[in-house]
Amino acid sequence: MVDPSVPQTRTPDAPRPGAPSGPREGISRRRLLGTAGATGLVLGAAGGAVGYAAAPSGATPLTSLGAEEVMFHGKHQPGITTPLQSRGHLVAFDLAPGAGRKEAAALLRRWSETARRLMAGEPAGQDDTGIARDAGPSSLTVTFGFGHSFFGRTGLEKQRPVALDPLPDFSSDRLDRARSNGDLWVQIGADDALVAFHALRAIQKDAGSAARVRWQMNGFNRSPGATAQPMTARNLMGQVDGTRNPKPDEPDFEKRVFVPQSGEPAWMANGSYAVVRRIRMLLDSWERLSVTAQEEVIGRRKSDGAPLSGGDETTEMDLEKTDAEGNLAVPINAHARITRPDQNGGAAMLRRPFSFHDGIDPDGVPDAGLLFICWQADPLRGFVPVQRKLDRGDALSRFVRHEASGLYAVPGGAAEGEYVGQRLLEG
């Protein structure tokens, strides 16, 4: 039996559920990939100057990487439990003046259909730009959420979740309000940069006159296959980041990350709440520290992510262990100690970030860091208590700056024939 809580993927030759058995009009990017690959092999063997023969020396064709497809329809929206992708775009929109519930419903209907088509490796529609014409789906996901202000703009204040109340102020915040919040939020991820940009452009064009971009951010992660074996990602500080993430096979995973079927409001059943923070890393200051000092700030070894109390990356951290001088092996203000769920009343969140680099300032300082995205069933029991504790004494706070913030209600996945948010907008 298929577990509906896990994002579903299918191989290139498997039919999309509900798809007609006869030939589709046109050709999908996924099918084009297979056709071009076969042709390229034949022509390459014959010495032709197209197909693989025209690829850079030593290049590997996008076979399994480009063909991987994530299902749009399901219990939960894609892009939450989907494995980290190598490229991401975050974009927030504000509804245009005069646009309300009707226009929002039409927009979400357009966006959902575009997302479904692109995630299946199909063109966006009649006005497809052709940017990703030669690529497969490349694990593309498109995820939609609603900000606090959306409900007032659409006359749906009574349907606004209590969990969507604005986040409290934190002493470490240096927030740019123009790059925070927004009526609507879209997360795009893919394992190919052109596929990801293609989706971003299609979503922007679909907004039409109904909504305007409020802010947009670009991120990246290590590409699949770049390491000899699968491993936890590293951030731009060089630290293994995500070791303590809850796992889908844990018995309380659904409870921590997703709103229950019986939850309130009803339209948020199987949905989640995303906290989004642009966290600039003060890399010049960080890189002046010795590796030992960096490890004491984090509470884990830089080489393999193991706790300073010993073991390997997955070893339980021993918070009471001391060294020969009687000092705690994991310092009292170490980031990994402070963020542990058992040190925060069980508060847990699924972190699924992207790194960012937006150039170098005139003084030579890189504008780089983490597009922090975390998912939880209730941010008041997930992100907020942990951030409050970090705000009071995290050793890492000297080396980061929170520059933008948003909180979004992300409804459950759309069933076949539905669009995302339909239960809210037509309920």
Automatic annotation (TrEMBL):
The protein's annotated catalytic reaction(s) are:
heme b + 2 H(+) = protoporphyrin IX + Fe(2+)
The alphabetized UniProt keywords are:
Heme, Iron, Lyase, Membrane, Metal-binding, Oxidoreductase, Peroxidase, Signal, Transmembrane, Transmembrane helix
Question: Could you say which EC number(s) this protein's record lists?
Answer: 1.11.1.-
Spell out the PROSITE patterns in the cross-references: DYP_PEROXIDASE, TAT
Q: Where is the Dyp-type peroxidase C-terminal domain?
A: 232-414
> Needs which cofactor?
heme b
- Residue ranges with Polar residues bias: 1-11
Q: What class of enzyme is it?
A: oxidoreductase
Stored SUPFAM superfamilies: Dimeric alpha+beta barrel (SSF54909)
Cofactor: binding details: Binds 1 heme b (iron(II)-protoporphyrin IX) group non-covalently per subunit.
- Any one GO molecular-function label of the UniProt entry: peroxidase activity
Start and end residues of each stretch annotated as Disordered = 1-27
Spans through the membrane: 32-55
What job does this protein perform? Involved in the recovery of exogenous heme iron. Extracts iron from heme while preserving the protoporphyrin ring intact.
Identification of the protein by name: Deferrochelatase
